[in-house]
Amino acid sequence: MYEEFVGFAQTRNVAEDNMIEFELHPTSYIEHSCTGWSVDLWNTGFGQSEKDVRDTWVIGLKLIQEFLLGQSIRYADQLKKGYKTIGDIPA
To answer: How far apart are CA 71 and CA 7, in angstroms?
Structure first.
């Protein structure tokens, strides 16, 4: 996902004072007795004024939104392939 985001961001107008980080975590779903992975996305905007910071942050947020929308369209058929989801595991 990170590599796809990097490629995606290289084709977009990215704010120079914006930093987007991916933080990967092992995740336990105790109710379902299984483990997996989750990712946090951190979006940070910098600037000379509060307005610059907000504007830069919003540019980053829109970039993340556009990327995730594209991913959901690109991989829309994955659940149709019969992969298990957390909802398939009995509680």
So the answer is: 13
| Tokens matching residue 65 | 């939104």
Q: Which of 2, 7, 5, 16 is nearest to 55 (CA)?
A: 16
| Structure-block tokens of residue 37 | 């992975």
Q: So where are the chain's domains? A: 2-77
Q: Taking the model in full, what pTM does it have?
A: 0.77
Count of Cβ atoms closer than 10 Å to residue 46 Cβ: 13
Residue 83 C-beta-side C-alpha neighbours within 13 Å: 9
CA–CA distance, 33 with 88 (Å, rounded to integer) = 12
Give the Cα separation of 27 and 88 in Å (integer): 17
Q: What is the pLDDT of residue 88?
A: 72
Question: 89 versus 23: which is more confidently predicted?
Answer: 23
